[in-house]
Design a protein that fits this description.
Elements lengths: L2 H9 L2 H5 L7 E6 L3 H4 L7 H17 L4 E6 L1 H5 L4 H4 L10 E3 L8 H10 L3 E6 L2 H14 L3 E5 L8 H14 L2 E3 L1 H9 L7 H8 L2 H17 L1
Parallel strand pairs: 1-2, 1-4, 2-3, 4-5, 5-6
Helix pairs in contact: 4-11, 8-9, 11-12
């Protein structure tokens, strides 16, 4: 059995599949959300990409999840992380890691930062999906982590890139998710005291209404 077979079996081991993702066992990895790379995004609008990535980061912060962010060739090629995202990151506790490797997992500083979180479920998003998000997700899976790609918080060069990228992610045994549903899964209950704040961070019209309803119901039980 080669390494890829072991990774596949690891991904589909029954106990691992049944283990629920929670705020206590998961971390966010945001890779290369850089101003220069946003120019190449054509499958969704840059505004939508920013909205989703920021919403994911905000919700993770509220839920107490670590967020490890990384850039590639920041000073040489692609520039810094876009400022709206930087504004919601805890860069004092988790400094943004710049590197030169295509695959963030090939950078020892990035891997060390992930290992330091002690989390076993990793959610990756990046620009682009099939390179910046997917490559470290494959490597994390091979290293024994439960690995996810948040498919609506990256961007790609074309619809074909997205289609092929998601197909390869699934074939590799990485789990594709969207930012709204995975945050709801992690939060787990509308009785959570932070539910209204989480829904506000996700910044979707119906999510805001859900948060207001949750707050009202929670108040009634006090």
């Amino acid at each position: 059995m080669d390494r890829n077979d072991r990774a596949y079996d690891k991904a589909y081991d029954k106990e691992d599949v049944l283990e629920r993702i929670t705020r206590n066992n998961s971390a966010i990895c945001l890779i290369d959300h850089q101003v220069g790379l946003l120019i190449g995004v054509h499958d969704i609008t840059v505004a939508e990409l920013k909205h989703n990535a920021v919403g994911l980061a905000k919700a993770a912060k509220i839920l107490g999840m670590p967020t490890i962010a990384s850039t590639t060739a920041k000073d040489d090629l692609w520039g810094p992380t876009f400022p709206e995202l930087v504004a919601v990151l805890d860069t004092k506790k988790y400094p943004i890691i710049d590197r030169m490797t295509m695959n963030a997992w090939d950078d020892p500083h990035f891997v060390k930062a992930v290992e330091a979180t002690g989390r076993t479920h990793l959610l990756f998003a990046g620009v682009t999906l099939q390179v910046c998000a997917a490559l470290p997700a494959y490597s994390a899976l091979a290293a024994g982590y439960k690995s996810y790609v948040v498919v609506d918080a990256p961007g790609v060069l074309s619809a074909t890139n997205r289609q092929v990228g998601i197909a390869r992610i699934q074939q590799a045994g990485v789990i594709p998710v969207d930012y709204f549903s995975i945050v709801c899964e992690i939060m787990a209950t509308n009785a959570d005291p932070s539910a209204n704040e989480v829904y506000a961070a996700l910044d979707l019209d119906f999510a805001t209404v859900m948060g207001q309803f949750s707050e009202a119901m929670t108040s009634k039980t006090k």
